[in-house]
Design a protein that fits this description.
This protein has about 270 residues and is an alpha/beta fold. The chain has 2 domains: about 1-30; about 35-270, Alpha/Beta hydrolase fold, catalytic domain (Rossmann fold), CATH 3.40.50.1820. The chain has 8 helices and 8 strands. β1 (about 50) and β2 form a beta hairpin. The longest helix is centred in the first third of the chain and has 28 residues, at about 5-30. The radius of gyration is 21 Å and the shape is globular. The chain starts with a helix and ends with a helix. Keywords: Cytoplasm, Hydrolase, Membrane, Transmembrane, Transmembrane helix. One of its GO terms (molecular function) is hydrolase activity. Its main location: cytoplasm.
Length: about 270
């Protein structure tokens, strides 16, 4: 092949790449993702990956034996997000066996490079209210392999919705902390079976304050006999509890630390 032809082909390939990037950027500018990735930690974790029946999971155990476990439920960026594993390790350091299963069962998680206009299509086979098979497997594992007697759940974003779902379906999960997640479509969504803490940010574009107000109002009217608490953190956006770094977000640091302390206190109170 002559050199001029190679140059022409190379230029053509470069132009195709540039056009694809421009098209992608235009699509994202038309409908950007409101669920900001924030700061991805460079964090490897102190736990290990294990196989739990048909799913993989990140498992970390506390320094001393414990009969308490917390299921950490991922956000849309998947079970391998370092930030989520950091939260699992934090829970383990506070005395809990922490397990973060891959609730997407090997399917590709969302990526910041994806076009938000395709999100509903991506979500179609990853419903946070369609996780019973995976939850049942994790519960069996914790009871039979880890000797667990008390179980809680903490979820972020997509996992916050899933945690809300667990509070409706699994009374054996003694406590739940739903971090920026709400079930919107179920008729029984206010009939909690286990104590649940809901954490939100005041400036969350994914879950506006009017939706939080509706949640709180209906819980007051329809949730009887089970404790719950709805807390909104001023000035905070979606993802602030686990996708903001407190060491570089000095203005957000008090809210980040307070929310994590609230999470730990809630689990300790009911587990």
């Amino acid at each position: 092949m002559c050199s001029s032809m190679r140059v022409s082909i190379h230029v053509c390939m470069v132009m195709c790449v540039i056009l694809n990037v421009i098209s992608f950027q235009m699509a994202n500018e038309a409908k950007p993702c409101p669920c900001d990735m924030g700061y991805m930690m460079e964090y490897g974790g102190v736990g290990q990956e294990v196989q739990i029946e048909h799913i993989k999971a990140y498992l970390v155990k506390p320094p001393s034996d414990s009969d308490k476990a917390v299921i950490i439920i991922q956000d849309i960026y998947g079970w391998q997000l370092p930030n989520t594993r950091y939260m699992a390790d934090m829970l383990a350091s506070n005395g809990y066996i922490a397990v973060c299963p891959d609730f997407y069962i090997g399917k590709e998680p969302w990526s910041p490079s994806h076009d938000w206009s395709t999100f509903q299509q991506w979500l179609e086979d990853k419903k946070p209210t369609n996780i019973n098979k995976e939850v049942d497997a994790v519960l069996r594992f914790l009871k039979s392999q880890c000797g667990v007697q008390r179980i809680g759940a903490v979820g972020f974003c997509w996992g916050g919705v899933a945690t809300h779902y667990l509070a409706l379906q699994y009374p054996e999960v003694r406590a739940g902390v739903s971090v920026y997640g709400i079930i919107r479509e179920r008729e029984d969504r206010y009939e909690l079976k286990s104590p649940t803490l809901f954490i939100f940010g005041e400036k969350d574009d994914v879950i506006p304050l009017d939706q939080v107000s509706v949640l709180e109002k209906n819980l007051q009217e329809k949730c009887t006999g089970v404790d719950y608490h709805v807390k909104v953190f001023p000035g905070q956006t979606h993802g602030f509890v686990h996708r903001k770094r407190e060491d570089i977000n000095t203005t957000d640091q008090p809210c980040i630390q307070e929310a994590r302390t609230d999470m730990l206190n809630w689990l300790q109170k009911y587990m």
